[in-house]
Amino acid sequence: MQRRSYQTEDEGSFLLDIIKIAIGVFIGGLAAAFTYEAILAYRTEMAIRKVQEEVKAQADRIERQDARRRQAESETRDAAQLEADQLRSAKALAQRLETERQQRKDAAWAKFYQPSPNCKIDPGTTPCANEHMVARKRFEGQYVDR
User: Fold this and answer.
1) How many CB atoms lie within 10 A of CB 114?
2) d(CA 104, CA 107)
3) Which of 82, 130, 136, 83 is nearest to 109 (CA)?
4) Residue 105: which of 146, 67, 76 has the closest Cα?
5) pLDDT (tens digit per residue) in 13-57
6) How many CA atoms lie within 13 A of 64 on its CB side?
7) How far apart are CA 106 and CA 113, in angstroms?
């Protein structure tokens, strides 16, 4: 019989078991590291999404405020334009009424004052100027616009 060295089957499998355990610990460590990295990536992604939502909400608020501001400016501009149009219209009406009043007064003056035959020939004389001033004063005193 041959003699065998003192080595049992368990000792060979013991070394193999230690290698298996080391590989298992290594793979478990890798799995834990990858899981940790995945959790960090997930948290980072969630934080980015939250920041993006906040930025979008802030941008929406700013856009709404800007729209309200533009609307208010537009309404102010429209109101100013309307007021300016009304003022122009009122001035035009006042000018037209004043022109009509002046035309009526001139027509009334033409009917009221008829220069004498001597003043029709030479209106630049002193008696004609005096006659004109007296007639104008009397006309102004009694004229009533209708």
Assistant:
1) 10
2) 5
3) 136
4) 146
5) 888 999 999 999 999 999 999 999 999 999 999 999 999 999 999
6) 6
7) 10
Written as six digits, the tokens of 112 are 């009221």
Look-up: residue for tokens 């122009």?
Answer: 88
Which residue matches tokens 């920041």?
Answer: 51
- Three-state DSSP class for 132? helix
What is the distance between the terminal CA atoms of the chain, rounded to a whole angstrom?
A: 157
DSSP string, 45-66: HHHHHHHHHHHHHHHHHHHHHH
And the tokens for 98? Answer: 């004043």
Q: How many CB atoms lie within 10 A of CB 54?
A: 10
Locate 114 and state its tokens: 């008829």
pTM, rounded to two decimals? 0.48
Q: How many residues are present in the chain? A: 146
